[in-house]
Write a structure and sequence with these properties.
CATH class of the largest domain in chain A: Mainly Alpha
Strand order of the largest sheet of chain B: 2-3-4-5-6
Number of domains of chain B: 2
Order of helices and strands of chain A: HHHHHH
Radius of gyration of chain A: 31 Å
Distance between the termini of chain B: 56 Å
Oligomer: heterodimer
Helix content of chain B: 55-70%
CATH topology of the largest domain in chain A: Helicase, Ruva Protein, domain 3
CATH architecture of the largest domain in chain A: Orthogonal Bundle
Order of helices and strands of chain B: HHHHHHHHHHHHHHHHHHEEEEEEEEEHHH
Distance between the termini of chain A: 74 Å
Shape of chain B: globular
Low-confidence stretches of chain A: 1-18
Number of helices of chain A: 6
Chain lengths: 152, 658
């Protein structure tokens, strides 16, 4: 329910369930349209809560979809089309945040943690094997033998 | 009158929770049996009054007492009784009382069924439960009182959001809360053990059923929520990496790690302080999830009326609970006995790696969820979004590593194992994995290698799960009679692991198929129009208006020719006049290999409607796998050893000795 509540809140802003692309918006060229749909899934409807412009039926999302298709028809590459939208709406519009000094930790934190954790696990095992009793040296062997023969 | 009784009961429960925590803690410290018994009594009384308070809210909804503000805001005379009752937890205030009720139920269950525990240990557990209860009761009383009156009382209420008027509302929140709150028992157990400075296999055996129960509930709760979103939101998404979803995923991931490390502690006496740490963190993540949802902090792009006092209260509580628990851990854990030794290739080692990956996966979700909050501080006020593409890129590879490990895990020997022996033991699942990968790559094409890999991982898990049973039953190596007797005597634990891990594989197949092969189409259709889609002919038979109990709807009736699944599908676009809102009831044609999903959109002047259709291959496997996992949890819960608890001298022998 919590997840739905949040979505509900998002939906009440745009008054109605989220439905996205209208038939008229679609491009005639299926290759371009496929690219547009794909890109739409990586762009955020900036007035909605965590919805892609592909999923949202907010008027702004429709505008963004239209702009995106205009750019693609004008011959922009995927990268250029995204850059165009970022220029207008900032990094906020990208669902995949750009890699910059301030997002380094976001992008590489998990790998760092995995390596650090892996190192910790390795240390733990190594420490364990060191802590495990070392085999007896010849002198100790002799003493053990002597002790055992004493008791028997 | 009922609201006042409820209010009074809630206040009494708050006071009793405080009494419970002080008396049990002091009693345990003094080893005073009378005080500790009083503490248990306070726990049960607290439960009694929480039940009354909860009942008072439900009564308000059932009798449509609009003089209670909460009822007036979330119910309407035309709202069906089931949804009026479920509305008890359909709002912030009411759901908080449900949370408290479940917490009190856990406390009560501990007080009644905790007999096999050491009395001082049980008392300390109840003491911590009491503190948690008091904190949440205080939150409810001071910031989100559910019993406020309205004067004059309105004649009609505002109905519950129509999206929430669904069977999902009846089962999803209680199960989710059983999960979140259930982890509080592990938290309390860990703190009590740290206070007493004593953790052993018996501790793990006591804590495991509680963790299992919480984990199973959370699994079902998340799956139900995902399925609900799938059919209710009208576009067939099943997971959105929304902060609120992430809030439930984090405790699930960490809880899964805890479930496994507790197993190592129970069987082998290893990973002691690690298990304690996981117990603390899992519940902390449940608390943080609550904070996320209640504070509205991540919805900041919208101007929703969010009470900042609530956010501040929950944040302070999160920090205090987690901080003091971790401080206690840092102080006491180093003194804990170090566990048994195990080799780097062993089941213990496998579970350690499983824990490592699960914790990193949790951290990834945590980073992705909270980074947008942190980002303005480190980038001079910039803003970013962390959405599905990020999680798919970072989380999915991690999970692929995990799934690879999961196949090996239960087939490793405890203590020490050899790589070569393992590969021979697992030759069948490994072979099937390679075959699935090759066939998949060939059939789907090189561009879909990742999808082939995902499917192959699913096959690997299902085969490895099956192999557990095959080996146990001695199929192919023993006589049929011996097989049968081995089938009948298969220990519960083996059934549980085989089911849960197979379920994970089933979910993996569903997720991969949805990610790689989903198809969609958007078009305008009028009655009689037809379209070819996903190997079927979809014909719109009729498009007309119908009236429901509290809504009006546009209904599209579709006829399907060819393909699998039902021949007739009905989708509605509903309008609820009293809340002026719309919902879509998608038409879903389910089958084992995928769903056809159609939703009716707005109608234009020419009488044609926007029709959106999707083909969702194997989508049902996502939830089917979750059900298998939960079934594994339930079966494991039925294990007699867990109910019996740790071996203790029976009363008779103690008396005889005395």
């Amino acid at each position: 329910m919590k997840r739905l509540l949040a979505l509900v809140l998002a939906l009440t802003v745009v008054a109605g369930p989220a439905l996205a692309v209208l038939p008229e918006e679609q491009l005639k060229d299926p290759v371009l349209e496929a690219r547009a749909r794909h890109l739409s899934k990586e762009l955020r409807c900036v007035v909605c809560q965590n919805q892609t412009i592909d999923d949202s039926d907010a008027p702004l999302a429709a505008d963004l979809r239209a702009i995106l298709r205009e750019r693609l028809v004008a011959g922009d590459s995927d990268k250029q089309a995204k850059a165009y939208l970022v220029q207008r709406y900032g990094d906020f519009v990208l669902l995949k945040p750009p890699i910059n000094p301030a997002t380094l930790f976001l992008w590489f934190g998990p790998a760092l943690l995995l390596l650090g954790g892996g190192f910790g696990v390795w240390r733990y095992w190594r420490g364990r094997s060191v802590a495990a009793p070392a085999p007896l040296d010849p002198e100790e062997q002799a003493r053990l033998k002597a002790l055992l023969s004493e008791t028997s | 009158m009922s609201a006042e009784i409820g209010q009074f009961a809630l206040i009494l429960a708050f006071v009793l929770a405080l009494v419970q925590s002080v008396v049990t803690m002091w009693g345990a410290h003094r080893r005073d049996d009378a005080l500790m018994a009083l503490g248990r009594m306070a726990t049960l009384l607290q439960l009694f009054f929480v039940v009354i308070a909860f009942g008072a809210i439900a009564w308000g909804y059932a009798t449509l007492d609009f003089s209670v503000e909460l009822v007036a805001r979330h119910s309407h005379t035309t709202q069906p009784l089931a949804y009026r009752l479920a509305a008890t937890w359909g709002s912030h205030e009411g759901s908080m009382v449900l949370w408290i009720l479940i917490l009190a139920l856990h406390g009560g269950a501990l007080a009644v069924f905790g007999r096999p525990l050491r009395t001082t240990f049980l008392s300390r557990v109840l003491g911590i439960q009491g503190l948690l209860g008091a904190a949440f009761l205080g939150f409810s009383l001071f910031t989100s009182n559910p019993f406020l009156r309205l004067s004059p009382a309105p004649l009609e209420g505002t109905e519950l959001n129509p999206l929430l008027q669904d069977p999902g509302l009846i089962s999803h929140p209680p199960l989710l809360y059983l999960g979140y709150v259930g982890f509080s028992v592990a938290f309390a157990f860990a703190l009590a053990a740290l206070i007493e400075g004593r953790v052993d296999a018996a501790w793990a055996r006591w804590v495991r059923p509680w963790v299992l129960f919480a984990w199973t509930s959370l699994t079902v709760g998340i799956a139900l929520g995902s399925h609900w979103a799938y059919y209710e939101l009208g576009w067939g998404g099943w997971w959105f990496w929304d902060p609120v979803e992430n809030a439930s995923l984090m405790p699930w991931l960490m809880g899964t790690a805890l479930l496994h490390s507790a197993l190592v502690l129970e069987k082998r006496g290893a990973l002691i302080s690690w298990t304690l740490l996981l117990s603390i963190l899992t519940f902390s993540l449940s608390l943080i999830g609550t904070f996320l949802v209640r504070s509205g902090i991540l919805n900041s792009v919208h101007a929703f009326a969010v009470d900042s006092a609530r956010g501040a209260y929950v944040l302070a509580f999160c920090v205090l609970a987690t901080g003091s628990a971790l401080a206690l851990y840092a102080w006491r854990a180093p003194a804990m006995r170090t566990g048994a030794v195990f080799g780097p290739i062993s089941r213990e080692a496998g579970i350690t790696l499983n824990n490592l990956v699960l914790v990193v996966a949790t951290a990834t979700v945590f980073l992705g969820t909270f980074y947008p909050l942190l980002y303005p501080l480190i980038s001079n006020g910039g803003t970013i979004t962390v959405g599905p593409p990020f999680f798919n890129l970072i989380f999915l590879p991690l999970f692929a590593i995990l799934l690879t490990l999961v196949g090996f895990g239960p087939l490793l020997h405890w203590k020490r194992d050899a790589v070569k022996a393992i590969l021979v033991r697992l030759r069948w699942p490994l072979g099937l994995f390679v075959i699935a990968l090759l066939v998949g790559t060939f059939a789907f094409g090189l561009g879909k290698t990742l999808a082939a890999f995902g499917i192959a991982l699913g096959v690997w898990l299902i085969a490895a799960g099956g192999l557990l049973l095959v080996r146990r039953w001695g199929l192919g190596s023993k006589s049929a009679a011996a097989n049968w007797s081995l089938v009948r005597t298969t220990p519960v634990a083996i059934w549980a692991v085989a089911l849960a891990h197979t379920g994970l594989g089933v979910t993996c197949v569903g997720v991969t198929a949805m990610g790689g092969f989903e198809a969609s189409k958007v078009l305008r259709m009028g009655p009689g129009d037809q379209v070819e889609f996903a190997g079927r002919t979809v014909i719109l038979d009729s498009l007309g208006e119908v009236a429901g109990p509290n809504y009006q709807a546009d209904r599209g009736v579709f006829r399907i020719v060819g393909g699998r699944g039902p021949r007739q599908l009905i989708s509605e676009r509903r309008f609820y006049p009293s809340s002026q809102s719309q919902t879509i009831e998608a038409a879903i044609g389910p089958s084992l290999v995928g769903n056809l999903y159609i939703s009716v959109g707005e109608r234009d002047q020419a009488g044609k409607a926007v029709i959106r259709m999707w083909n969702h291959p194997f989508v049902g496997w996502i939830w089917g796998g979750a059900i298998l996992m939960a079934l594994g949890g339930l079966i494991s819960l039925s294990d007699r050893r867990l109910r019996l608890g740790a071996p203790q001298p029976s009363r008779k022998t103690v008396e005889a000795a005395a």
